[in-house]
Structures are given as C-alpha cells and as structure tokens.
C-alpha cells in the first residue's frame, strides 16, 4: 500500500522536535551510570575499577543491539516515509523477534565465559571477580533490554523519539530505589555491590515489558501482532543487510575500546579509576552527539523513503551543526571546570582527581570531531550506508589509537623480533592524547563520506 508521503520537511523546528526527546533519553541513561558510580563510592578502589571495566563490557550490549536497531530504524523509517504502514508494522514484528533470539543467544554464550573475558583486561587484585559478579544479573536479563532497545528503534524510525524518553524515565524511577536498597540492604560488601547491577537489570526488564505493551496497543502508528512475529526470512535478510555491518562497526569499536582499557588498566588502579571518572564526564558530550545522531537516523530514513534525498541531506547537516555546537560548549565546560568535576568523584584522593583532570581537559578539544563521527555514523545508518564505517573505525583504532597509546603510555615498547623502542611514559594523559588523535581522524573521514552524497543511492 502506498500513498502520498506526509513526512515533514527538514527545518530547525523538526530537528528540535526529534532531537530534544532523544537528548533527554540519552541523559537519563547517563544518569543511571553516574548514579551507579555514586552507589559504588563506599566500596573502595577495586570495586570502582571493576565497575568501570564492567560498564565497558556492558557497553557491548548496546553495540550488540545495533544488529536489531540500525536496520529497524532504517527500514521502518523508509516504510513510514513511503506511507506503507503494513510493512512498517511487519518490520517492527521482525525486530522484536530478532531481539528475543539474540537475547537468548547472548545469555547462553556470555554467561559461562565472563571470568575468562575479564581475565584478559588486566584488572588488579580482586577486581576481576567483583566485575564478573556484577555483570551476572545484567547478562541474565539482557533479552528484555534488547526488546526495549529494538522497540524504541522502531518508534524512532516512525519519527517518535518521545516514547523512548517516557520509557526510560520509568526505568530511572525504578532503578533509583531498587539499586539503592539492593546495594545497602544486604550483608556482605560483594552482595551489596552486585545489588547495583540488579537495579539496572530489573528496571530495564520493566522497560522492555512497557515497550511491548505500547507496541501491542499500537503506538505512533506501529502495531505489534502475533502474525508479524512469525519469521519472514526475506525481510529479516533486508534488516540484517543494514544491521550487520553497523553492528560489526559497533562491536569493533567496543573490542578496540576494551583493548584500550587493557592498556589503561596496566597503568594501575589509580589510572583506571581516574579513567572511569573522566569517561563519565565526557559522556555528557558524546551522549548529546548520540541524541542528534538518533534524530538524524529518523529524518534521513523517512525522507529517503519519501524520495526527498536533498531534504535528507539538509536534515543531516542540521543535526551535525546542532551537535557540534552543543558538544563544543560541553568541551569548554570540561576545560574550565575539570578539577571540581573530578574532585566530585574522588574527594579524598587528589592523585586520582589530578589524573582525571589531565584526561578531561585533553578530550575537551575532541568535541567537534566527535560530533562528526557520532552524527554522521548514525546518519549513514539511517540511509542504510553501513559498510564503509567499519573500515573507518578499524583505521582509527588499529592504525591510530592503539599504537599511539602503547607508544605514549609505556616506558619501553616491544616490537617482537625487531627489538624494543623507547616510549614516552606519559601515563593516562598519553592514552587520552592517543584518543584525541583517533577521534579527529575518524571525524574527518565520516564528514567526507557524508559530504560525498553516495549514501543517497544505497538500497535497503
């Protein structure tokens, strides 16, 4: 069924209508991370280092979910843009089916291997065991979080960024008291610490149930039925053709981030704790980019479905401009207020706070390039142009960030049969300097790709 498209033109009103709820949604997720860090405060440096590493690994869930979300947003957006609601609903059902299958696979595969995975990350003292215990409830209940993510991705494709905000508001309202009482109300410190993760796992489970309920009732023109949950292999193939390269990109980034974290963990628990503090503040910048990137997926996929590629491009550039301005302002705040920000999470240890300040003031200069990398990655995904981004990510991390991080952080670098070379021994600052260079390289690459306009001709 087709009809005259009713997709709104790309203008600042439409940009803000899509982006502001997505921005609030990103900051709610960020609030949970900061709240968990606050609850972990009394447990000591090993627990803080474990939480930082556990959050990195839990980030794999977000990257893994891209197998569902990228294709779901792109296809639902195309069908909504073409006013084909039947196929939009059918795609929604396939995305939920895929979320259930992938969630069950993730639990079955990840659960037995958590200790082995954590052993590769060079955590010190008791931190590996603590991180494994923390991750267990999150892995156990990951299916419902994937359903939550997949359903919200479909709604974003339909131009609805508000429902995700409402759902995640409920997630926060559940998480705050549950995590607090679970982390304070039991006997041993290890059990208390894992209570933080139970708050996150249970709240996202409720979020997944809420998304299912809304879709069954027919939210934003998308209605989930049993018939649409039956596997449609050709449609699943179309969805995965977009999602798999995007997921490969996200998972490659996650794997490289874990490699980067291993380099940081080799610097000791102080550096690892400071790294985690700086990352949490930096997140106020990149989560803003994520919000504008999410909105760009909706506006680009719908306008391409409506056969208005020029409006799609205009929307992408407007989202980048808004993200760049917002994130550059955040960068200025990082530079000016790095010391009180880092002292907030480390009031009793000036060494950790000082290391955090070095990292945060360094990444302040990366914000414009990070806006480009994030927004244009999402914009290209909305167009279904997901293959090139994988190579950009590999180049940025494997050719730039990781080699530079070894060179700048170590005293002596082993080159195997070629001997050794002297490193710069710059510690955590050297690692974040390598990150800065990588972000600028990838930001420029993604900007050039979007500027080329080749994404307008991609078929999904």
Automatic annotation (TrEMBL):
<keyword id="KW-0050">Antiport</keyword>
<keyword id="KW-1133">Transmembrane helix</keyword>
<feature type="transmembrane region" description="Helical">
    <location>
        <begin position="195"/>
        <end position="218"/>
    </location>
</feature>
<keyword id="KW-0406">Ion transport</keyword>
<feature type="transmembrane region" description="Helical">
    <location>
        <begin position="357"/>
        <end position="377"/>
    </location>
</feature>
<dbReference type="GO" id="GO:0042910">
    <property type="term" value="F:xenobiotic transmembrane transporter activity"/>
</dbReference>
<feature type="transmembrane region" description="Helical">
    <location>
        <begin position="317"/>
        <end position="337"/>
    </location>
</feature>
<feature type="transmembrane region" description="Helical">
    <location>
        <begin position="165"/>
        <end position="183"/>
    </location>
</feature>
<dbReference type="InterPro" id="IPR002528">
    <property type="entry name" value="MATE_fam"/>
</dbReference>
<feature type="transmembrane region" description="Helical">
    <location>
        <begin position="92"/>
        <end position="114"/>
    </location>
</feature>
<protein>
    <recommendedName>
        <fullName>Multidrug-efflux transporter</fullName>
    </recommendedName>
</protein>
<dbReference type="GO" id="GO:0015297">
    <property type="term" value="F:antiporter activity"/>
</dbReference>
<dbReference type="GO" id="GO:0005886">
    <property type="term" value="C:plasma membrane"/>
</dbReference>
<keyword id="KW-0812">Transmembrane</keyword>
<keyword id="KW-0813">Transport</keyword>
<feature type="transmembrane region" description="Helical">
    <location>
        <begin position="429"/>
        <end position="450"/>
    </location>
</feature>
<keyword id="KW-0472">Membrane</keyword>
<dbReference type="Pfam" id="PF01554">
    <property type="entry name" value="MatE"/>
</dbReference>
<feature type="transmembrane region" description="Helical">
    <location>
        <begin position="389"/>
        <end position="409"/>
    </location>
</feature>
<feature type="transmembrane region" description="Helical">
    <location>
        <begin position="134"/>
        <end position="158"/>
    </location>
</feature>
<dbReference type="InterPro" id="IPR050222">
    <property type="entry name" value="MATE_MdtK"/>
</dbReference>
<dbReference type="GO" id="GO:0006811">
    <property type="term" value="P:monoatomic ion transport"/>
</dbReference>
<keyword id="KW-1003">Cell membrane</keyword>
<feature type="transmembrane region" description="Helical">
    <location>
        <begin position="56"/>
        <end position="80"/>
    </location>
</feature>
<dbReference type="InterPro" id="IPR048279">
    <property type="entry name" value="MdtK-like"/>
</dbReference>
């Amino acid at each position: 069924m087709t009809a005259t498209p009713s997709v709104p033109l790309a203008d600042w009103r439409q940009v803000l209508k899509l982006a502001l709820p997505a921005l609030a949604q990103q900051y709610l997720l960020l609030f949970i991370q900061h709240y968990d860090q606050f609850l972990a405060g009394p447990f000591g440096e090993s627990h803080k280092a474990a939480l930082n590493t556990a959050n990195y690994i839990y980030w794999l869930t977000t990257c893994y979910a891209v197998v569902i979300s990228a294709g779901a947003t792109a296809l639902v957006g195309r069908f909504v843009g073409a006013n084909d609601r039947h196929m939009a609903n059918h795609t929604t059902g396939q995305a939920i089916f895929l979320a259930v299958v992938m969630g069950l696979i993730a639990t079955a595969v990840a659960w037995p291997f958590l200790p082995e995975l954590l052993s590769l990350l060079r955590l010190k003292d008791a931190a590996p065991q603590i991180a494994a215990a923390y991750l267990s409830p999150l892995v156990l209940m990951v299916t419902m979080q994937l359903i939550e993510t997949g359903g919200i991705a479909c709604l974003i494709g339909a131009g609805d960024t508000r429902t995700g905000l409402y759902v995640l508001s409920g997630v926060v309202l559940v998480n705050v008291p549950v995590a607090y009482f679970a982390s304070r109300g039991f006997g041993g410190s290890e059990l208390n610490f894992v209570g933080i993760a139970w708050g996150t796992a249970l709240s996202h489970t409720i979020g997944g149930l809420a998304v299912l309920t809304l879709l069954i009732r027919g939210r934003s023109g998308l209605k989930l039925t049993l018939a649409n949950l039956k596997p449609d292999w050709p449609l699943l193939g179309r969805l995965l053709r977009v999602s798999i390269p995007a997921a490969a990109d996200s998972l490659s980034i996650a794997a490289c981030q874990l490699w980067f974290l291993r380099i940081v963990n080799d610097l000791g628990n102080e550096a690892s704790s400071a790294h985690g503090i700086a990352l949490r503040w930096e997140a106020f910048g990149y989560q803003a980019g994520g919000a504008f990137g999410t909105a760009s997926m909706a506006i680009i996929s719908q306008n391409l479905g409506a056969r208005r590629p020029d409006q799609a491009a205009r929307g992408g550039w407007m989202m980048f401009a808004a993200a760049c301005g917002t994130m550059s302002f955040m960068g200025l705040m990082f530079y000016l207020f790095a010391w009180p920000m880092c002292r907030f999470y480390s009031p009793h240890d000036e060494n950790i706070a000082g290391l955090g300040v070095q990292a945060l003031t360094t990444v302040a200069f990366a914000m414009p390039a990070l806006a480009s990398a994030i927004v244009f990655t999402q914009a290209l995904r909305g167009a279904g142009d997901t293959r090139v981004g994988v190579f950009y990510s590999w180049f940025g991390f494997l050719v730039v960030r990781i080699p530079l991080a070894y060179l700048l952080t170590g005293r002596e670098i082993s080159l195997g049969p070629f001997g050794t070379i002297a490193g710069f021994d710059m510690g955590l600052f050297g690692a974040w300097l390598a990150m800065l260079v990588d972000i600028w390289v990838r930001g420029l690459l993604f900007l050039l790709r979007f500027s080329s306009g080749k994404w307008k001709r991609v078929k999904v």
